[in-house]
Amino acid sequence: MEKIKMTTPLVEMDGDEMTRILWKWIKEELILPFVDLKTEYYDLGLEYRNKTNDQVTVDSAEATKKYGVAVKCATITPNAARMTEYDLKEMWKSPNGTIRAMLDGTVFRAPIIVKGIEPYVKNWKKPITIARHAYGDVYKASEMKIPGAGKAELVYTAADGTEQRELIHEFKGAGIIQGQHNLTGSIESFARSCFNYALDTKQDLWFATKDTISKKYDHTFKDIFQKIFDEEYKGKFEEAGITYFYTLIDDAVARVIRSEGGYIWACKNYDGDVMSDMVATAFGSLSMMTSVLASPNGYYEYEAAHGTVQRHYYRHLKGEKTSTNPIATIFAWTGALRKRGELDGISELCTFADKLEKACIQTIEEGNMTHDLAIITTMENPTELNSEDFIKAIRTTLEGLL
Ligand code: NAP
Ligand code: MG
Predict the structure, then answer these.
(1) Does one domain contain both 335 and 241?
(2) Residues 370 and 310 in one domain
(3) Residue 77: CB within 6 Å of ligand 1?
(4) What is the pLDDT of residues 288-325, one digit of tens each?
(5) Do 334 and 199 share a structural domain?
(6) Which residue pairs from 382-388 have beta carbons closer than 8 angstroms and sit at least 24 positions apart in sequence?
(7) Quick one: average pLDDT of 246-264?
């Protein structure tokens, strides 16, 4: 079979630990034999980030702006223990944080659904994608402990010195206060990323806040979404046969639980943090969760939602075979290859991505899976494979489909 040709390179961001090992195996077994792979390679492994003073992370984000599509392996976010382990010059920032800030993007997380790994919510049949706003609110709040009686106010001083005040509370005794903020520009980018991603994946978009209580703060989120929708996206949504709807967050959670899935749920920062963990757990497994960073300008970076699976890596280093699940990382590759195919008009690349995903799902549904799935599946007598054998099994299924 002739290999599929590519015209534009993918930005390839290599990573750390067990996922770096899987990365290599996935490429060798599932991609290179079938695709004449073009990538621009950036090594975001912690050693090389340290060596380049993290410049490589910045360069990889710049390359994503240039080419439009990146695929990223999980990376270590350094903490005190990693400082010693890797003899780091500095506690480098999370690469995901750096890339997200540079692309001004929103992260969309969606579960991969297979028969035999059943969601805890029995009517969920299709994926629920969570879009989390990644700026501000409680994550950038200022807080104060109030020791005793006194007046607390919000004060805004404009550039010309004029002041605007709002009473928070007349304290009679001790208490606590918190000041949150967000930026119109950031909310607009969030809204556009969500509308674009809905069009891209042909799914309805839901957005919910607590605007009935928060009449200025949350209401502004609601208003910005509605204005951008009406002015820029209404026609495109009608053409695509999808809808945007806003509802109160209380109503949204009730509807989500009763729904069959198949839509995007846009959440404010805190709601997205909590709801994405809830939805991921309810769908069964973090190792089956994909993640894509989409920018309002149409740049995409695909990855797995899980980390570098450190515990498995240490076992791998001791020469043990591990049963680490490669599915979410494979789907990062298929997501990126399909997007590249769409942008460059290479339909064979899209078809290949579809078939590789199908091969993953079929292999699991035929009873072959890694340990994490074998312990939660409803299938009787599943075959538990190590990562290498599982990837080989996917290759056999894929060859049958091609
Ligand atoms: P993790 O790598 O997601 O792993 C936590 C545990 O979840 C694993 O020990 C394993 O459980 C299970 N698990 C996760 N992915 C799995 C897979 N593909 N197959 C099988 N089991 C899987 O999270 P972590 O241990 O908290 O973090 C490790 C490193 O990853 C940290 O340095 C962190 O900074 C980084 N991280 C990176 C990203 C990213 O780049 N996007 C995201 C999160 C964390 P068992 O050990 O019980 O089998
Ligand atoms: Mg969380």
Answers:
(1) no
(2) yes
(3) yes
(4) 999 999 998 889 999 999 999 999 999 999 999 999 99
(5) no
(6) 382/116, 384/323, 385/323, 386/321, 386/322, 386/323, 387/21, 387/22, 387/25, 387/321, 387/322, 387/323, 387/324, 387/325, 387/326, 388/25, 388/321
(7) 96
Q: Which residue has the higher pLDDT, 141 or 175?
A: 175
Distance 73 CA to ligand 1 centre (A): 12
Tell me which DSSP letter residue 148 carries. S
CATH number at residue 253: 3.40.718.10
Q: Give the pairing of strands 163-171 and 383-384.
A: unpaired
Domain span at residue 37 reads 1-113+288-402
Is the CB of 57 inside a 6 Å radius of any atom of ligand 1? no
Mean pLDDT of the chain: 95
Taken in order 25, 31, 32, 37, the sign of the CA dihedral is: negative
Contact 187, 228 (CB under 8 A): no
Ligand positioned closest to the Cα atom of 376: 1
Instruction: Write down how long the chain is.
Output: 402
Q: pLDDT, tens digit, for every residue of 312-370?
A: 999 999 999 999 999 999 999 999 999 999 999 999 999 999 999 999 999 999 999 99
Q: Determine contact, residues 291/189, Cβ cutoff 8 Å.
A: no
Q: How far is the CA of 275 from the centre of ligand 2 (A)?
A: 8
Q: In this structure, are 26 and 160 located in the same domain?
A: no
CA–centroid distance, residue 278 to ligand 2 (Å): 9
Domain co-membership, 325 together with 270: no
